[in-house]
Design goal:
Elements (H helix, E strand, L loop, with lengths): L1 E3 L13 H13 L1 H4 L2 H16 L7 H7 L15 H18 L7 E4 L8 E4 L14 H4 L5 E4 L2 E5 L11 E4 L9 H10 L5 E6 L4 E2 L8 E2 L2 H4 L10 E2 L3 H15 L3 E5 L5 H5 L1 E6 L10 E3 L4 E4 L3 E4 L9 E2 L8 E10 L6 E7 L2 H10 L3 H10 L11 E10 L2 E12 L7 E3 L6
Parallel strand pairs: 1-6, 7-11, 7-12, 12-18
Antiparallel strand pairs: 2-3, 4-5, 5-10, 6-11, 8-9, 13-21, 14-15, 15-16, 17-18, 17-19, 19-20
Helix pairs in contact: 1-3, 3-5, 7-12, 9-11
């Protein structure tokens, strides 16, 4: 079974620049919904300013109360004074009103995810013609609030969207779009060559227990015994959906077809015929039990990412901060495919937010430019096989910043796909 998505994706894969966002903010403030709403104007201006002045800072409710609503810092109590929460709700409603009417054709969109005070600026798809139909894909719609948390496992209850147990596959069909920026075009045209199909494989961790009884957790073959069955293969990391959404923008703009499939339903026959993009660490794709062997950065259970060749005085391992998540590390690896004329791209964090950041990194013109520069790839030059490590900052379960730490060449002779050892799973 195949689901087709409409072809209304944005024309650029970069993040809006600061001057673009400020110009967009001025337009919002002059619009009818905001023109006389002084409180909303002040709050939105403060949030956008902080977005650029302190991009990695976890903005607290008390800071907003003091800076915007002039509450005394020494005595403000968020438990008894709900001014920030109330005004944030009203601001989100005002922004929704603006984008439904006065800003319906705006290319840039400001979002304040629920549960967060961090403002995010994104490009959004705009349809042609005087009337703007709502043509966002299921992936974009899924960004909004389907994530649920249980214990240490951050999951998406994606029975309808992922339907991994039923073997449903997403198909994205090419559309006529502007060309990619130069560095993205150079990168992606070699990552997904013309020969072979293109397949994005999103994670399906093998779980046991039930969400309703509060026993849902990762399945352990050594301690759990019986196979948990296929009913728990309908979950995926909450960062995978925005990661796949970002990748579909690239494919749409590149004019290439792609399929999206869960790791739980991918078979070797299909994998051998495809250029593969894995979203998520090895443990999240249990049906394969094999991945291309990396030489520089490998995942170890309960440890994180292990650097096989750490620099003098550098770290040997990299792992995420735990609840609340604020920091992660991720691997971006371009490797040989299962056959000589196929390729593999691995986008994997130690947690799902790192995987999302890795996908967004390779969809960003300036970040890909920094990667090509680090690899010493000249304009028009061949992209070598490589392994890279990026640092990721997280705010309210959203990756808000990433930076390239290392980029190393992968030995072209190291092409073997082999079973993962227990500590790598």
């Amino acid at each position: 079974m195949s689901l087709s998505f409409p072809d209304a994706m944005d024309s650029a894969c970069r993040e809006p620049a600061q001057d673009e966002v400020h110009a967009h903010l001025e337009k919002i403030l002059k619009s009818p919904p905001f023109r006389s709403a002084e409180t909303n104007r002040a709050l939105l201006t403060f949030l956008v300013t902080r977005m650029f002045d302190h991009p990695c800072h976890h903005l607290k409710e008390s800071e907003i109360a003091v800076s915007v609503f002039h509450r005394p810092a020494s005595s403000f109590d968020p438990q008894s004074d709900s001014v920030v929460r109330v005004q944030m709700t009203r601001l989100r409603a005002k922004l929704q009103e603006y984008y439904l009417h006065h800003g319906a054709q705006d290319e840039i969109c400001l979002e304040i995810p629920k549960g967060s005070y961090q403002t995010v600026a994104i490009f959004r798809p705009i349809a042609n013609g005087p009337e703007r139909p709502t043509r966002l894909s299921l992936l974009d719609k899924a960004k909004g609030g389907i994530a649920s948390r249980h214990g240490a496992i951050r999951i998406v209850a994606a029975l309808a969207l992922i339907a991994a147990g039923a073997g449903i596959e997403w198909a994205w069909h090419r559309s006529s779009s502007p060309s990619l920026p130069p560095h993205l075009a150079q990168f992606w045209k070699q990552v997904v060559p013309d020969q072979g199909t293109n397949l994005i494989v999103f994670s399906n961790p093998r779980l046991t227990g039930t969400l309703f009884e509060g026993t849902l957790r990762y399945y352990d073959e050594q301690t759990d015994g019986a196979d948990p069955g296929s009913e728990n293969l309908t979950y995926s990391g909450s960062g995978d959906i925005p990661a796949v959404s970002a990748l579909t923008r690239v494919f749409d703009t590149l004019g290439k077809e792609m399929n999206v499939r869960s790791g739980a339903t991918l078979g070797w026959a299909q994998a051998k015929e495809s250029n593969l993009i894995f979203v998520g660490r090895p443990k999240q794709n249990p049906s394969l039990r094999m991945l291309p062997r990396m030489n520089e950065f490998n995942f170890r259970a309960l440890t994180g990412i292990v650097d096989a060749h750490p620099p003098s005085g550098g770290n040997k391992t990299y792992h995420c901060d735990y609840h609340p998540y604020s920091h992660d590390w991720a691997v971006i690896a371009f490797l040989p495919g299962l056959t000589p004329d196929r390729t593999t791209l691995v986008l994997a964090g130690t947690i799902t937010y790192g995987s999302q950041a890795a996908a967004e990194f390779v969809c960003n013109e300036s970040k890909v430019a920094s990667l090509l520069d680090r690899l010493n790839v000249k304009p028009g030059g061949k992209l070598p096989f490589f392994e890279a490590l990026i640092e990721v900052r997280i705010n309210q379960n959203v990756p808000v910043w990433s930076h390239l730490q290392f980029a190393r060449l992968h030995p072209s002779s190291l092409t073997a796909w082999q079973p993962l050892s227990p500590d790598e799973q």
